[in-house]
Amino acid sequence: MITTIQLRPFLPVSTDKWYLFYKKINWLWWLQRIPMLALAIPASYGVAVFSTIGNTLPVVIAAVAGIAFESTYIGTIALGDQMLDDDPIGRRIWLGLNIFAVLASALFNTLAFSGGKYSNISPESITHGALLPITNFFYGFLLHWISTKANKQQQLKEDQERRLQQAKAESEKEHCEYCNIGKPTKQAVWSHYRSCDNKLAGLPKKYTMDGRLLT
Ligand SMILES: [Zn+2]
Q1: How much distance in Å is there from the Cα of 174 to the middle of ligand 1?
Q2: How far, in Å, is the centroid of ligand 1 from the Cα of 199?
């Protein structure tokens, strides 16, 4: 799958001044991903809090664990944009990892709000812990779904335009009156006459220069 403009964080615009850098930013791409990042920050905090309960991990390492966990999850969604259609095993691994990551994040967060004990889990701690990761999962999934569809649609459009252009170029060609081969100009057809097998064999003209059969 060729990545189209909607799936790139920066636009292929060249600017000669460094302060015009903002022109390169694909705002659509970034705006679409801000909710994921915003939802991931509190969720990664929850993972970090859980990792410090009972002094299991030092604060700094727990913070890294939280960021690592949620960035893996966001990275997985981003990877999905590049996945090939004809890779069913890859798709299953991708979906499995996504579901596992969101459930693990929901569990870490719920436990973080339950003082680190399964016996303390309450409806309130589930509300605190599970809703952000699950919302993020569905948002990411929807984003991936829409991006893939938009990408495919654009690809189809580009293919169609290319075929139309090819057909147009073909119809505008000049043709050899002996073998009907198409050339971009009349001059090119005339120089082709020097090597045209049909003309050299002394066969009569069979076509018009616009490629129709002589009647
Ligand atoms: Zn010819």
Answers
A1: 11
A2: 6
How many residues can be counted in the chain?
Answer: 215
Q: Spell out the domain ranges in the chain.
A: 5-169, 173-215
- What are 135's two structure tokens? 């919302």
Distance 197 CA to ligand 1 centre (A): 6
Q: How far is ligand 1, taken at its centre, from the CA of residue 203, in Å? A: 10
Residues with CB under 5 A from ligand 1 (ion): 176, 178-179, 196
Q: Decide: pTM greater than 0.70.
A: no
- Kind plus residue range of the DSSP H or E element containing 174: strand 174-175
For 108-127, the pLDDT digits (tens) are 999 999 998 999 999 999 99
Nearest to 187 by CA among 204, 209, 171: 209
